[in-house]
Amino acid sequence: MRAVGHSPSPPPVAGAAGADWSVLATLLPYLWEYKGRVLFAIACLVAAKLAVVAVPVLLKHIVDAFAAAPTLEARTLVAVPVLLIAAYGVLRLSNSVFTELREFFFAKVTQASVRKIALRTFRHLHSLSLRFHLERRTGAVTREIDHGIRGISSLISFTLYSILPTLVELTLVLGYLLLNYEIWFAAIVAVSLVVYVGFTFAVTNWRTRFRREMNELDAKASSRAVDSLLNFETVKYFNNERFEAERYDGTLAQQEHAAIRSQQSLNLLNAGQQAIIAVALTLMLWRAALGVAEGRMTVGDLVLVNAFMLQLYVPLNFLGVIYREIKQALTDMDRMFRLMQEHREVDDAPGAPPLRLSGGEIRFESVDFGYDPRRRVLHEVSFTVPAGTTTAVVGATGSGKSTLARLIFRFYDVQGGRVLIDGQDVRNVTQASLRAAIGIVPQDTVLFNDSIEYNIAYGRPGASRAEVEAAARSAHIHDFIARLPDGYATQVGERGLKLSGGEKQRVAIARTLLKNPAILIFDEATSALDSRTERDIQHELEVIAAQRTTLVIAHRLSTIVNADQILVLDHGRIVERGSHDELLARPDGHYARLWAVQQREREPAATGAAWPVSL
């Protein structure tokens, strides 16, 4: 079920044909930015095709020159028509030169357009809400972008290098045949072309559903494979290799069935196309031979018509393939453009100013929020984190603690009330300035598949090595990194899997410290650390937080005893608030009971006894 606030992809415009034209209309402005190169490429295309069509005409004159000499001696006197032969070479060379010039100058148009569209799509994906990315499989999204980029290159390539040249050549041939020969030649070419194109379009549109089904299953299989491999450890933990293989094979079996139907329909299409071409070629050769026999045409005319047939045969033979590829390219591009049309659930207000920081006070005013409108997560939540102070939030799993951080970052918009920073509603300032002012150390740290230095420096791109090392020292991870064979150049692996949970969390802490934000959020920031490292880092975090507005989402109450204010959340409501001592003074309160449970847990751990089975 689609969550509220996330707009579905827009439907095709007026059917498949309307969708295709819509895709072309989206692409053309990118190409027209280089209109000089486009027009020059088209001029080269026309010049190349003029040279191609002129070659059979030249061959006709060469043959007629020989045929006009009545005796062998006369043919010897004629010798070789040097000028005609030279002209033949010039035309052949002209075709190659103009073709290469066309591709030489148009390459910039293709690659620049692909780059701009890919970048725009990438930026748009980053501008979409967290809800969109949680609902979509990342592998499937990146695959749509890859296919869309290839689709653009394919469409431009097939259009400029195949479709347009073929249309120009057909127009020139038809025009020459109409002006110089009986109408039957032009009629045969025109009728065969119409029948061929109509048959190709009809059958290709019929078999498109097979191709679409095959591509969708291919994407599904790829997505499942990526998802399984990304969760390699989880698969191993539960001994589910066979289950994953069977699940993957089930999709492959469906894909195999669709691919067979697609190939069989392709064979049917090819057979029909060859039949149409064979009939057309036979009719044209028959009319030419009849004309020569009746004296209405010369041997040179027969050669010319035959050469025209051979030249037209190749593009007509591949027209079906080209059409199918263009249809697929349009489909792939449509999917990518639909990503670009995805609604931004969270967007900057028109003319929104940047956030003006004057201390970093955070205030929630009667905030209501739910990821699904049928299930509210926060109910009338109100609290203030004064500038430069630390507020901790505790509560059971699912009480809404992490949701507070997401609303401060404006990953989602509240459905009631307001979230303010220094008196400014976060919905009325730019997201870039808002997030630049906030740093977070999340509970589930995910790192980029790059070096440790890259991951720490990600907190402030462009930071010097000395600044990176200083942040690592503050996070108590520098000594560990220094002992590694590759030091800061050590690769952390996919999602940081080569590091332990504690090591990843310390990298995340260093990354946030390097960012040096005015507001800090620690979401179970030390949950993956051992007790000794936790104490060391906790002291460091307290020093750092002393000059900043800090929100601590905690499970271990021992880490927040020095907080200026502690909020206790229960089912999305603040049920208690106060300092550690004030809350402990309420023996029947939620906080006091939770503190007592955690103190009992610490006692058997300290004596080496077994961990309690439940709280």
Characterise this structure.
With 615 residues, the chain is an alpha/beta fold. The protein is built from 19 helices and ten strands. The chain has helices spanning 15-32, 35-68, 72-78, 82-127, 130-135, 138-180, 183-230, 232-237, 241-293, 299-340, 401-408, 431-436, 452-457, 465-474, 478-483, 501-515, 531-545, 580-584, 590-607, and strands at 362-369, 378-385, 390-395, 416-421, 424-425, 438-441, 519-523, 549-553, 565-570, 573-578. Strand 1 and strand 2 form a beta hairpin. Helix 2 (35-68) packs parallel to helix 6, helix 6 (138-180) packs antiparallel against helix 10 and helix 7 (183-230) runs parallel beside helix 10. It starts with 14 loop residues before the first helix and ends in an 8-residue tail after the last helix. The relative contact order is 0.08. Residues 1-15, 74-78 and 605-615 have low confidence and may be disordered.
